[in-house]
Amino acid sequence: MASVIHPVREGIRGPNIASADVQLPAVRDYEQVDREIIATLGFTKKWFFGLSLAVLAMLIGASAWLFQIYWGLGQAGYEPPVMWGNYIITFVFWVGIGHAGTLISAILYLFRAGFRTSIYRAAEAMTVFAVMTAGLFPIIHIGRPWKFFWLVPYPNWRLLFPNFKSPLVWDVFAISTYLTISTTFLFIGLIPDIAVLRDKETNPIRKRILSILSLGWRNSDREWRHFAKAYLFLAAFSTPLVLSVHSVVSFDFAMALTPGWHASIFPPYFVAGAIFSGFAMVWTITIPMRKWFKLEHYITLNHLDATAKVVLFTSMVVGCAYMIEFFIAWYSGVRAEQEFFWNRVFGQWWWAAWIMLLCNMALPMSLWSQKLRRNPTWLFVLSLFINLGMWFERFVIVVPSLSHEFEPWQWGSYTPSWIDMSFLIGSFGWFFMWFLLFVKQLPVMAIMELKEIVVPRNKHAHDGGHH
Amino acid sequence: MQGVLGAFRELDTTVAAIKDLKQKRLGEMTVYSPTIRHELDDAIDGPNSVVRRYTLIGGLLGVSFGYWIAIWSSEYWPLVTGGKAIASWIPYTIIGFEVMVLVGALSTVAGMFIHSRVPRLTTTTGYDVRFSSGHFGIFIACDAAKAPQAEALLREHGAVEVRRED
Hints:
Order of helices and strands of chain B: EHEHHHEHE
Oligomer: heterodimer
Radius of gyration of chain B: 25 Å
Largest sheet of chain B: 4 strands, antiparallel
Number of domains of chain B: 2
Number of strands of chain B: 4
Distance between the termini of chain A: 24 Å
Number of helices of chain B: 5
Largest interface: A-B, 75 and 68 residues
Radius of gyration of chain A: 24 Å
Number of helices of chain A: 16
Structural class of chain A: mainly alpha
Structural class of chain B: alpha+beta
Helix content of chain B: 40-55%
């Protein structure tokens, strides 16, 4: 898909993406790519174990949902003034996770960042499943899930539309557009790879299914020409979309006159945090995957190093945003804001704020060390800390603000009930269940794009071509 | 479709065969490759994709509809607040933008499908399963009279297999 790079007119060249840090020296030809990526589709005991754990976790969440539907929303830990808690925290957390996939697919594609090639398919799938997970929470939060279609902007019988000036309506537009476009992006990229699976398949039933899914793709020059152009425009559309989605989510908070929320820094702060957490989740899923599927020569230490630099940068942006929040509260001279931010780090929820600062600001500074950036074990451990820290970031935004507003008589507390925590566990189960099912049905790496990096076979050697 | 199909193992021999076939003008040519290769694009020198027109038209329709629905519904049932515009274009930009992306992107995909001629019910004529794996291919749509010349040319350039397709 790098055909958008202006071609050199003469001679046979090497890889389409000729950046030294992304080449795959251990991959010799196209057939090896097919063989090794298709081999990841075989079922293993570890996979069954992982899927069983995910389904179990999902069932915990599903049971809690049934309980809540029967006994009512009061079973969750909400009480005035904290009427947003775990559901909105976890919603924002998963939307944030869903950011990295399309960022890697689209923005890094437009910027010609070669390291995206080996990881973008897993990241795209992660995005789709993370947004699917996030989408559950507004439905859970409304208490009567069978009325969920009221969230969709459509008029009532007197043609009264929802208020298009409401951030919650913007959110519905932003999230549903993002889910649709991310899913489309994932599917379009999968078509040539499904054609590879179709042509290798011997089971007639599976071959038939793959034929339908591949849409009769034949790898012809006409198909590639339109495919490359469509992919480019999808990337161009997705790039501002990625930035808009979490900006719109941040408006849910920033448009409210609540201490700690009503700040113009929220959109870039949320976007940086989303990219940060999304990359961490990319590590959480790709580092075990590269080991268990024996894909170390596809996701090399150079790839991990490059992603670690993105995480380090976004960590600094997020850290800077935290500091600016405190500065603005002090500089504004507004008593309520100053009180609130003092309360954030030294008040009732001090431990949540310090977990956030430790995981999101302090620990990622270890990535200044190249040795640690190239240490998969450390990156995996760090990714778990960042996931934890980013969940607590949303907790720190939601709960202390609502529990500590302007008037002392309004102040209150929030204790998540077992229902809240079951939903949190269930969301991880739901997400990993879909991801684990995906990796055994469809290629977890983009076969077609990996072949772009591999030097093609040439009769007359040029630029290191095989012959 | 009647014609001759050649399979190649190497990229450079495929490129050379394409250039030669273009000069000879034996018939409409279809080139297969397991991935996008600039060398093939250069040799084929095909027309620009028209998908971008679908993108432009879809995007314009989407942004127009997004603004229209927000403005029309506000005017149809005004929520009057002192000093505030009934139809406020600044927040409606979010609706316009999201619908532009949605319709523009889906139009792009529709354009790609229409011009790539997918979904296709059969892949058999002029196709070989090796072309999705490691081989390159050239199919020349030509009648029986020109077929021997096409076969000879493909073999001359190193095709590992040449066969006629009906």
